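Notebook, p. 212. Picked up where the previous page left off. The plan for this session was modest: take the two constructs that came back from the sequencing core last week, fold each one, and keep the raw output in the notebook itself so nobody has to go hunting through shared drives later. Recording the first one now, exactly as returned: residue sequence, then the structure token string.
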Amino acid sequence: MNTIIFDLDNTLIWDEKSTEEALDATCKAAKLADDSAAILLKQEVISHAHSLFEELEGHSYLANIEVTAMEALWARFDDGAAPELRRMRELAPFYRKAVWGSGLKELGIYNEKLAAELAETFPAERRKRPYIYEDTFKALHSLHTNYPLMLLTNGTPDLQKEKLFGVSGLSAFFSHIVISGEVGCGKPSPKIFEHCMELAGLTPEQCLMVGDNLFTDILGASRSGIASAWLNRSGLKLPSNAARPTFEIKSLLEIEALLPLKPIG
């Protein structure tokens, strides 16, 4: 085995925690009647974000590179050559305001000014929270001296770079950084895994994919003939409809014990 390929979101950085806290802070900033109203607003915003995201012009492209509805609530879309990304730069402010406005209306609040304010508050709150897991730097420090490391992440170029470079020193571990928005397709498409291998002159047998998502990281690796390590921090049961990982780990610190690559069974 030659190279370890890492996912970014919820593998190296704790994106879920960042998003949850930013949503809570933004709903609190709405200064609603009580905490239950803030909780309801959060639920409605998440629901409307997903429904309105699917209605966006260029949604099929965004889905292809695996941009999420919540990411579209704070991405700038100011990087990337695809015309769909340039179009989203224009549409994003309207999408954000519509999401927050729709959430407020579910609570009987018709206030466009407040919706606009919350649409700007959420990106600011999200950018305050570049959380990283405790084991991330320990694992990368240990591994990078013996193995070339690559990063393979889905999303828009601007946002994924912001997440990566927003954590001091994180990008320095990777010899190659591949972002789906720069390639035109995302995990689990075998094409983006093939792109990674071509970039570094690798064969599938030389790679190990490490990621938390069974339906992007692990499925994509499986389709590409690449061994995989499913990072299952929460001890979830493997769903029957999911791709089977080569390994299952609960911490990034367990990767070194897998090397050299000797899958069981």
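Okay, moving on. Second construct, recorded in the same format:
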Amino acid sequence: MSREQHMKDTLQAYIDAYNSDDLVALLALYSDDASVEDPYGTPPKKGKAEIMEFYRQAMANGATLQLSAPIRGSGADAAAMALDAVVKLPEGSMRVSVIDVMTFNDAGLIVSMRAYFGQSDIRMSTQD
């Protein structure tokens, strides 16, 4: 399997693990010294303990991740995906449109994840 395909498969595994509330599988995709900036510009969560706590809290809100375009790889060490994080609320759904960019080490593990979105990328809907 090519490095590009491995990165794409890893991003799909990330979505699958998140949507299954499988914190163990999700953390297994990360290197021990990885960092997560979600959203980008906030202080990074560093190392598996901080990353685990971040995802534990994120999964507790019941969000699901839905791809909005095919996962993109590269010829180097990064891959990206456009997705919507959807949270069901009593008054409807909150949908956050996000671009996640992840970089990988030589072992094929995620070493950094950056989620790009701003206030204008968050919307409420009663249609979901």
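Notes on construct two before I forget. The first strand starts at residue 30 and ends at 37.
Flagging for discussion at group meeting.
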